[in-house]
Design a protein that fits this description.
Strand order of the largest sheet: 1-3-2
Number of domains: 1
CATH class: Mainly Alpha
Radius of gyration: 16 Å
Number of strands: 3
Order of helices and strands: HHEHHEEH
Largest sheet: 3 strands, antiparallel
CATH superfamily: Winged helix-like DNA-binding domain superfamily/Winged helix DNA-binding domain
Shape: elongated
Length: 103
């Protein structure tokens, strides 16, 4: 089987490609915003792992977090930024291109 010369897996956004971060980004792309507890439940990550992945996505500029208190209980709300939406669209296009080349 010949691999196309244009097939460049290095172009895949590794920030999104990691499964835990991909799950977070996909949920946020469907919703306007989500809180930490919702993402914890949906992604089935541990609290520590979810926190680390959110920090990485925030450092990349793909998400924004807002920490507030509701009746003295901390609440972290997460939203996908425009940069995150664009990165997901590019990731999706690149992955689709790769899969179409190989199938």
């Amino acid at each position: 089987m010949k691999v196309d010369a244009d097939l460049n897996l290095d172009e895949i956004d590794r920030m999104i490609h990691e499964p835990a971060r991909l799950a977070i980004i996909v949920y946020l792309s469907i919703l306007r915003e989500a809180d930490f507890t919702y993402l914890l439940h949906k992604t089935k990550l541990s609290r520590g792992n979810l926190s680390v992945q959110l920090t990485r996505l925030e450092e990349a500029g793909y998400i924004e977090t807002e920490k507030t208190f509701v009746k003295r209980v901390p609440r972290t709300m997460v939203t996908l930024t425009d940069k995150g939406k664009k990165a997901l669209a590019l990731y999706k296009d690149k992955l689709r291109s790769i899969l179409e080349t190989t199938c």
